[in-house]
Amino acid sequence: MTELKPGRYRHFKGNEYQVIGLATHSETEETVVVYRPLYGDGALWVRPLAMFTETVERDGQVQPRFAWIGE
Predict the structure, then answer these.
(1) Distance between CA atoms of 18 and 1, rounded to whole angstroms?
(2) Which pairs with CB-CB distance under 8 Å and at least 24 residues apart come from 46-52?
(3) What pTM did the predictor assign?
(4) Which of 1, 14, 66, 71 has its CA 20 to 30 A from that of 39?
(5) Strands 66-70, 16-24: parallel, antiparallel or unpaired by DSSP?
(6) 24: helix, strand or coil
(7) A single Pfam family, by name (predicted)?
(8) DSSP code for 12
């Protein structure tokens, strides 16, 4: 399983999220990131690690989908 630092991340669209940790999908064994938004109801979400750590292009600039901003 690849490592991902727990803590606060900013999505490229501006909202902040708290990464809880990594988990393994029971059927596919894919690594997923467990996180919660730091707004709204704070429900837990999961996203494939590959998608969480990929880069995206917005307004002609390539940037991480989620950027680590601190503990």
Answers:
(1) 20
(2) 49/2, 49/4, 49/22, 52/4
(3) 0.89
(4) 1
(5) unpaired
(6) strand
(7) DUF1653
(8) T
Helix, strand, coil proportions of the chain in percent (round to 5)? 5, 55, 40
Query: Domain of 10: which CATH number?
Result: 2.30.30.320
Note whether residue 71 is domain-resident: no
What is the tens place of the pLDDT at every residue in 36-61? Answer: 999 999 999 999 999 999 999 988 99
Q: 10 lies in which domain range?
A: 5-65
The residue with tokens 């596919």 is 28
For residue 27, being part of any structural domain is answered with yes
Contacts 24+ apart (CB under 8 A), 39-45: 39/15, 44/20
Residue range 6-42, pLDDT digits in tens:
999 999 999 999 999 999 999 999 999 999 999 999 9
Cα 27 to its chain centre, rounded Å, is: 21
